TrEMBL record, chains A, B:
It is an enzyme of class 6 (ligase). The keyword Metal-binding does not apply. CDD domains: EcAsnRS_like_N. Belongs to the class-II aminoacyl-tRNA synthetase family. GO terms for biological process: asparaginyl-tRNA aminoacylation. This is asparagine--tRNA ligase. Its EC number is 6.1.1.22. Residues 355-616 form the Aminoacyl-tRNA synthetase class II (D/K/N) domain. Keywords: Aminoacyl-tRNA synthetase, ATP-binding, Coiled coil, Ligase, Nucleotide-binding, Protein biosynthesis. SUPFAM superfamilies: Class II aaRS and biotin synthetases. Residues 290-327 form a coiled coil.
């Protein structure tokens, strides 16, 4: 299937600011019309070698290396270029060819090492077949390079970058390619350090690849994932643009703890080394004066001993003893003070942030929904798409420390409005991937997960099962064929295990659960009339679990105030948010889509680290 | 001008997941066809009161409050509703009206406080005229509410939120409005705490508004800026999508210092309090054992004194003296060790990050271009749009600590390709704003900067003046009418002052300066053949200065290695980046557009903090 977007691309290289033609453009053209109109065209293509083979051409037995006795196999090209043989042997012929600029000319330097024509080991002419990929699509282009055009050993390693010019031709042999490129100019070769290039080996497991995140996108799997990710990203912006939402970039740095959680990254410019030095200075300053006094006390003690021994002068002794006592007192006093100062300085309960960049403690944001709400309460419908951060010390396959989230917030909207919007958004994303990524999805279906296309189609065509939390608890209570790790009782936060069971086993389709107990949702979610539950929901899809979490948020000042009190949150941090209820408050609702989990769902992979360009997780931030 | 996008919206509320109709939809319809087809329609609208007036209806003199002697002015509505007067006075009539559901019925509770009909202070009937805005456009809708529908005092304050239902009618008086809403149901009122609501005052300067970033978008200026920002944001994604770039979300948290700068924010989960406590524990543990030994020494010292005095047992004395000496030695040893431990612990030069979340020191990224380059070297053309961070202690009007950047990187592309792409991108952004934000731009031209539209049109129609750095230096050297703060000599980094002079005074149009001295650009920019300059450029526009900075980046391993050496950078941090040169290296180039500066350019404002939803700058991170 070729989409509208793909048709917009033409073979003209102007589209992408270099002279080369994208392989996607070329190969999709070729597939659409069986390469009609392409054969004979000259093009410039660039990319990285995915696999290669060299087919030797027979040389004259006369100059065969003795070691080279492996003979020709059936696939080898039997053509012998007389010109090449002549060139290699007879200097005059070579010179003539050089002057005439003959097409078969082999550069002089390649032949220079042959001191004596009859004894020399002449490189055997060959043809190199390269499968080239440029990241624009799954397919690769076969590029044929004669050894007279470029040194085969430089081209063959996997990962070599080449920029070549040549003519599009019908493939010499029947195969899966409908077109190939006969290269006659190699404009660039980026060689490979074979011994150290991790991608030289075939089929490296994804978890090993994670340590080489800078090379990962050169694998077909990761490149495919990133192309799908890109389509989902643009679809996100398109959906909200089509529905008149305004894109509001909420801040990554915040002094507000949106969820009341503790797994926060701190942002600071304070220098830990400088802080330590400050403590050390305190210690040294106090320490020095104490030592002086102690030395004095020791001297005075000796003086007293001497006076005692001499028994000469009782008055002098009494004065010296008095002096010693005073000095000792001072020493004790100083010692105590030193101890106190250091201890105070070490123990100080309040960490001083006044000297920090923002003059206050700041964090990386966990959620942008509070900030977004303030813009919704002025602009109506708003959304944000950016990184959010959680310092969970976990190696869960569904969690990374930095994840991109799509957050939407709508004024004058209630729980059901948010649910409708979340559903439409999810359907839209799946539809766009189905329409725009057919080649990538086929690759995934073949190599990773053959159910991936069906899953996307189900989202588009089927509505989620709607269950209140109470109903979900009832359903789970009746489950007999499975023992859950967390017992089912009213009030628990449903775990991944429960949710997956509902979506994967019970309903075998997306499930939407709403009206959660207030204890398991953040303070800002709207309290329902029952006083026990809040207007929150989760949209759970098969395979990955919760993909969207939404809620109607509390617009009533008195109720949100008492929720903050109940939870013991630092009210002063939320004054700005409460202000929105004091002045022109409005019902509003919204949701968060975990974008990386959406990519995981679409691609059928199992670890979120494999769908994030540079994943950050506990103990890992490679670059 | 009405754009395609605006036409897509219909009066159906389905588009935006609530029953209300966006004012943009309604008012643009009204302007397009002179309100034909709208008059008589029932709609639900919601928004915030921008301004209001109450027009009293005359009451019977009989019940006038004595204080109410200000008389009627000419603008007041002279209609007297007999029904209301009768209702207010005669209980029976009221009851009859209630039963019949008469349209003029005034709810009972409003009248209940009038104990005696003749003495009561009856609220004087009135009509409230509200200018309502919902953030979807500059224009507001006039909403007319009779005091019988809602208590006027609740509706009148600026900032009050209302959701009202009613009928669209031709305005009662000729004016700028082509349609107004006669409300007959008020479904929601979000009142205002007049004394504390900062936006109650009119025309608050933008710099004062910054302290109330959560309310700012309710002002017409900031709402307009945010709508334009939104159009620029979607245009960014559209441009790159149209040109087959892949969106790669580069990480905010990084262990690589992309620019080799020092103004970095650190990211940590280490607890400063806990660190201090650790030091304090060392101190205490050591301190305590030392004290025990000291106490023992003192006791032994007394023992020795006693033995000396009694002179009874020389052997016992010798043993006691030996014991005392050992104890004293131990005390000295412990004292020395304690001092050493604390000092070491305080002074430790290497700040230990092994216990930090990522087991290494991490920062907030200054630039995503290195990370992006690694994806370009696999996928071809890539871009990223996200927050970047610099901890400059400055209050410059062009700088914030967190700014959004658009970064693009293209493999197989050289300096000129990057320049062409940057130019096209800038033109595209300006074109999209001109097409999609006509009403917003008119508001800006009227209120902020009347040259804003001309400036955008110039970018679309005129190509930038191209100058090498050498040529720019020559031009600036010849300037006689202006003395620059930094003297013009080869090798300086051109300052804002120089660049603005070129764009605003000399050429009066965008200027592109390229081939900067290598010393003033980052290590990764490609060295030119002259060995002195690098393939970097800036695109400078009138009014705001540099808006795009681009470069071709160094693909040659040996040269980039020696640049890293020259600059004394920590090579081990860049090994992953150098890997890209070791394996399949390719010419690549790209650029960075400062998105917030682009919004500043478009809106004609002068401080970047006014175009960022929640600005963060030195000493300021409000929420």
């Amino acid at each position: 299937m070729s989409t509208q977007q793909e048709h917009q691309l033409s073979l003209s290289p102007f589209n992408h600011y270099s002279n080369r033609v994208l392989l996607k453009t070329l190969l999709h053209h070729a597939n659409d019309d069986g390469a009609v109109g392409l054969v004979g065209q000259r093009v410039l293509v660039g990319g990285w070698v995915k696999s290669s083979k060299e087919v030797k051409k027979p040389s004259l037995p006369l100059i065969m290396d003795n070691n080279n006795n492996d003979g020709f196999d059936e696939t080898r090209n039997k053509d012998v270029s007389c010109v090449e043989i002549l060139q290699s042997r007879i200097p005059l012929v070579r010179s003539i060819f050089h002057v005439l600029g003959g097409k078969g000319y082999v550069p002089r330097k390649k032949l220079e090492h042959s001191q004596h024509p009859l004894k020399a080991i002449i490189p055997q002419p060959s043809t190199v077949y390269l499968l080239l990929t440029d990241g624009s699509c799954v397919s690769s282009l076969q590029v044929v390079v004669d050894s007279s055009v470029a040194q085969p050993s430089n081209l063959l390693p996997t990962g070599t970058c080449i920029l070549v010019e040549g003519q599009l031709v019908k493939p010499s042999s029947e195969g899966k390619h409908s077109i190939e490129l006969k290269a006659d100019k190699v404009l660039h070769i980026g060689t490979v350090d074979i011994d150290n290039y991790r991608l030289s080996r075939k089929r490296i497991p994804l978890d090993m690849l994670r340590d080489y995140s800078h090379f990962r996108p050169r694998t077909t799997t990761v490149a495919t994932v990133m192309r799908i990710r890109n389509v989902l990203s643009f679809a996100t912006h398109s959906f909200f643009n089509d529905h008149a939402f305004i894109d509001v970039q909420v801040p990554a740095i915040t002094s507000t703890d949106s969820e009341g959680f503790s797994n926060l990254f701190k942002v600071t410019t304070l220098d830990r080394k400088a802080e330590k030095e400050k403590l050390s200075t305190v210690y040294e300053t106090e320490g020095v004066s104490l030592e002086v006094v102690k030395a004095a006390a020791k001297e005075k003690s000796n003086q007293v001993e001497n006076l005692k021994r001499s028994e000469s002068n009782r008055e002098a002794l009494a004065a010296a003893i008095h002096d010693l006592r005073k000095t000792n007192e001072l020493a004790s006093h100083l010692e105590a003070r030193e101890k106190k100062t250091i201890e105070a300085s070490l123990k100080d309960d309040k960490v001083d942030s006044s000297e920090d960049f923002f003059s206050c403690q700041t964090y990386l944001t966990v959620s942008g929904r509070l900030h977004l709400a303030s813009y919704a309460c002025a602009l109506g419908n708003v959304y944000s798409f950016g990184p959010r951060f959680q310092a969970h010390k976990t190696d869960s396959a569904k969690h990374a420390a930095e994840m991109w989230m799509v957050e939407a917030e709508m004024a004058f909207a209630q729980l059901k409005d948010s649910m409708n919007c979340a559903n439409d958004f999810l359907k839209y994303l799946c539809k766009r991937v189905l329409e725009n990524c057919s080649e990538d999805l086929k690759f995934i279906a073949k190599r990773i997960d053959n159910a991936c296309i069906d899953r996307l189609q189900q989202i588009v065509s089927v509505s989620p099962e709607m269950l209140s939390y109470n109903e979900a608890i009832d359903v789970l209570r009746k489950v007999e064929d499975k023992k859950f790790e967390t017992n089912i009782e009213w009030g628990i936060d449903l775990t991944t295990e429960h949710l997956s069971y509902l979506a994967d086993v019970v309903y075998k389709k997306p499930v939407m659960i709403y009206n959660y107990p207030k204890e398991v949702r953040p303070f800002y979610v709207r309290l329902n009339d029952d006083g026990r539950t809040v207007a929150a929901y989760d949209l759970i899809v098969p395979k990955v679990g919760t993909i969207i979490s939404g809620s109607q948020n509390e617009e009533r000042l008195n109720i949100i105030s008492s929720r903050i009190r109940e939870l013991g949150l630092a009210r002063e941090k939320y004054e700005w948010y409460l202000d929105l209820r004091r002045n022109g408050t409005v019902k509003h609702s919204g949701f968060t889509l975990k974008f990386d989990i959406m990519v995981l769902f679409t691609t059928g992979l199992s670890n979120v680290r494999d769908v994030i360009p540079f994943p950050r997780s506990y103990g890992k931030a490679n670059n």
